[in-house]
Design goal:
Elements (H helix, E strand, L loop, with lengths): L2 E6 L14 E2 L2 E2 H9 L7 E7 L5 H9 L3 E5 L4 H11 L4 E6 L7 H13 L4 E5 L8 E4 H10 L9 H4 L7 E5 L16 H13 L8 H10 L1 H4 L12 H13 L1 H16 L1
Parallel strand pairs: 1-4, 1-6, 4-5, 7-9
Antiparallel strand pairs: 2-3, 6-8, 7-8
Helix pairs in contact: 3-5, 5-11
Length: 269
């Protein structure tokens, strides 16, 4: 069984230009993410998944500098990019995080890995963590089924395509204890997000990687800092797109089941 960690990264952000190259206590945002990925147990490859657009070329240099792989795929079809990377590196399963989440939970990434070892899940999601702290777990064959079935091309927000218990083995893991803080926002989209993350990284002692527990404790002790990004709006899949996807899964159910059978038959040969 091969499990990889795929980092989705591009340099196209308009709300906060070049956000993943911003400095957090001496390292770029994306380098913090790479460092965290390296702490996750039993990962065979770490792959920076970016696009074929020339503007993303600096990310290839970062991958080389940090001794990880990179993959150039579709600009807009993120799920297809992830699937192609997983196939290229012969991964059975992969974890995924976007490059604007420099405080994803290493502990729950390890939980995902352990769960894949024990159970035959297609999609694993973590709920209850601060926004931006939850990696996803995906079975490569499940991603292939969706990519062969879907008509959506823009899949920057792709979880809705896999979070379908009627078709896939979906597992939800709820964060517990001090890490259960869905009220906190630790992702990077706006200047206010950067101010908050910068405060955390420059005010909390750590070696190597910053512990998410310590980051949460810092914000609990400094509620004024925790509120810096309270007015930042998170982008979610719009209702119209959800309805289009729902209709496709309903209207083309037989086609999806046929693709599933083909994929599973191919695995058995």
């Amino acid at each position: 069984m091969k499990i990889g960690f795929l980092i989705t990264a591009r340099l196209k952000s308009s709300r906060l230009p070049l956000k993943i190259l911003k400095d957090l206590n001496g390292k770029t945002v994306i380098e913090h993410i790479i460092d965290r990925c390296k702490k996750v147990q039993d990962i065979s490859e770490i792959v920076l998944c970016t696009s074929t657009n020339p503007q993303d070329k600096p990310l290839l240099d970062i991958a080389r500098k940090n001794d990880i792989y990179y993959f150039n795929g579709s600009e807009d079809d993120v799920l297809s990019r992830l699937h192609q990377a997983a196939r290229l590196f012969s991964l059975d399963y992969f974890l995924s995080i976007t490059a604007d989440n420099p405080l994803f939970s290493i502990d729950y990434a390890n939980v995902i890995v352990d769960t894949f070892k024990r159970e035959n899940n297609d999609f694993i999601k973590i709920t209850g963590l601060p926004l931006g702290s939850a990696p996803y777990g995906i079975k490569t064959s499940a991603a292939e089924i969706v990519c062969r079935f879907k008509s959506q091309i823009d899949t920057e927000i792709w979880g809705y395509l896999l979070d379908r218990p009627d078709f896939f083995a979906v597992k939800e893991i709820k964060a517990a204890g001090r890490l259960n803080r869905p009220d906190l926002r630790l992702t990077l989209d706006y200047e206010e997000d950067y101010l908050l993350l910068n405060k955390i990284y420059n005010s909390t002692e750590y070696r190597g990687v910053l512990n998410l527990f310590d980051a949460i404790d810092f914000l609990s002790a400094n509620p004024d800092i925790a509120l810096l990004n309270k007015n930042c709006l998170q982008r979610y899949l719009d209702q119209n797109t959800k309805e289009i996807i729902d209709k496709e899964f309903t209207d083309k159910r037989d086609k999806l089941l046929e693709i599933q059978a083909q994929v599973y038959a191919g695995q058995a040969t």
